[in-house]
Design a protein that fits this description.
single chain; 327 residues; alpha/beta; Rossmann fold; 2 domains; seven-stranded mixed beta sheet; 11 helices; globular
Amino acid sequence: MNLLIVGYGSIGRRHATILAGAVDVGVVETQPALRDRAAAAGIEPVFDNIAAGAAWGPDAIIIATPTHLHADCYKAVESLARPTLIEKPIAHNEETLAFFEQLSAEKAGRIVVMANMRYHAGPETLRDNLARIGRPRSAHVQFGSYLPDMRPGVDYRSVYAAHRDQGGGVLVDCIHEFDYMWWLFGKPAVAGSHLSRVSSLEIDVEDHAVVLLDHPNGPRAVYELDYLQRHKFRSCRIVGDEGTLVWQSRAKAPEIVDVSFYSGDAREPEQLFHDDSYDINVIYGKYLDAFLAFTRTGDRGRLLDVATATQEVRLLISIIAQTTMDR
């Protein structure tokens, strides 16, 4: 099976490394230094443009470019009619969002979007134990990571996350948090939001966001997201009538992951999951395995579909449009 990865930045390299040996990987990369890096990693073929990559005859495609390039990259391979995995988020503004929203059902049915947190032990364990807490009433979702540390060796001011016109800002960049809660509780409604730039980082986007969402038949959830925390931290606390579930992931490469259940009358929680050396590549591998299965069977399973992916982005860009950012 020939699988073409468009983009050999950090996420493209991760995908190529995980897929090595499972499929024949080809890469499209416009930057000479990254093409050299792909060749040095033993990838063959490596192309400098998408047209050449399309002529290679891929059986499936992964678009792993910065968000603002997703639509143009997809248009360049659209005529191949191959199963395609697009990195998150699928789009970054009204124009690119409308493009994906207006795809035919046939074309949209061949696309899935990266949502690998659906395979993380944290959200998985939460989902498996939701019935134990009774009706969920409230939730607090948190993510924090220091932007300059996200791409070691790369000036943070040059990455997409620092620029609104490239799909940056902590709100959209942290779409994983909104996606796994959407997966758990369904499409939410916005009840409030606050966006701010509180640091001295040289960016034109928010580095701190607080959003209040109401999930149907689920909790009222507070989302707090930032580019400020030097120690990467991710958590979700869900409070129900009969108990509370708490997930925390700390640090990275590897993560320290804990999920606990607090019953109404217990002094100590029940530990549901613990791993102090959790390899994040595992969840990428599971998602890529599911994508490869999708290319063979068409069964999307847990993979994120275009309709939901575009609804998630539309929710977030509507928050940005309606919220005045504090500076």
